[in-house]
Amino acid sequence: MGNSELTGKVIKLMPYGAFVKLDEGKVGLIHVSQFEELPERGLTDPPKEGDRVIVKVTGKENGGRLNLTFLGKLNEEKITKPKGMIREDFEQKLKKFFKESQESQSAHNKRIKRHRRMAA
């Protein structure tokens, strides 16, 4: 649960933050300080009650309530994420592609060497 992105619905706005009910049933809080940083992260407006949002769990309080990091709003048509996160997603996919490509090329080269030894 720690590093994964989760979705939920904003159920209550308070002066100190927004309560989000996650799809799995737990409730967490996005602290108001995160909404002040939205322009720096490429987001335009904070969530409102009833909005579907994407969050990341950053901790847990004694009462069982989760501390959440706001990652973006979830619209019916698309996911609105900060520009930096889109770049990170792309870079992760690119690294995965290169790794798989190198593994595939290495396996191919081994097959060719084995075939040449048999033919000789």
What does this structure look like?
- With 120 residues, the protein is of the alpha+beta class.
- It has 2 helices and 6 strands, in the order E-E-E-H-E-E-E-H.
- The protein has helices at 33-36, 83-119; strands at residues 5-14, 17-22, 27-31, 52-60, 66-74, 79-80.
- A hairpin with a 4-residue loop joins strand 2 and strand 3 (27-31).
- The mean pLDDT is 81.
Tell me briefly what this model is.
The chain has 120 residues and is an alpha+beta fold. It is 34% helix and 34% strand.
Structurally, the number of domains stands at 2
Spatial separation of the terminal alpha carbons: 55 Å
How large, in whole angstroms, is the Cα Rg?
22 Å
CATH architecture of the largest domain: Beta Barrel
State the main characteristics:
2 helices, 34% helix
Walk me through the topology.
Elements: E1 5-14, E2 17-22, E3 27-31, H1 33-36, E4 52-60, E5 66-74, E6 79-80, H2 83-119
Parallel strand pairs: 3-5
Antiparallel strand pairs: 1-2, 1-4, 2-3, 4-5, 5-6
